[in-house]
């Protein structure tokens, strides 16, 4: 099996502004499903990557999200 190089895949950075921020990875394909969940405490940072399996990332809670397109602040 050939391993793909994901070095050109997009990344986002999520910084929790409150306790219990959830970062949820959603799958690609005909049926979109949750495939991974992380819970962040206030001040924690997660770097997430879009891959062959991850087409979307959902964020619940108060957080700062940094992307190559800019910064987004979620509402709590």
Secondary-structure topology with pairs:
Elements: E1 11-16, E2 21-27, E3 34-40, E4 45-49, E5 54-60, E6 63-67, E7 70-73
Antiparallel strand pairs: 1-4, 1-6, 2-3, 2-5, 6-7
Explain this structure.
The protein is mostly beta strands and 76 residues long. It has one domain: Immunoglobulin-like, CATH 2.60.40.50. Helix content is 0%, strand content 54%. Strands 4-1-6-7 form a four-stranded antiparallel β-sheet, with no helix packed on it. A hairpin with a 6-residue loop joins strand 2 and strand 3 (34-40). The radius of gyration is 13 Å and the shape is globular. The mean pLDDT is 86.
Brief overview, please?
This protein is mainly beta. It has strands at 11-16, 21-27, 34-40, 45-49, 54-60, 63-67, 70-73.
Structural class: mainly beta
Q: What does the main sheet amount to? A: 4 strands, antiparallel
* Named CATH topology: Immunoglobulin-like
What is the domain total for the residues?
1
Shape: globular
User: Beta fraction of the residues?
Assistant: over 45%
* CATH architecture group name: Sandwich
CATH domain class name:
Mainly Beta
Helix content: under 10%
Please give a handful of descriptors for the protein shown.
mainly beta; Immunoglobulin-like; three-stranded antiparallel sheet; globular; 76 residues; 54% strand; four-stranded antiparallel sheet
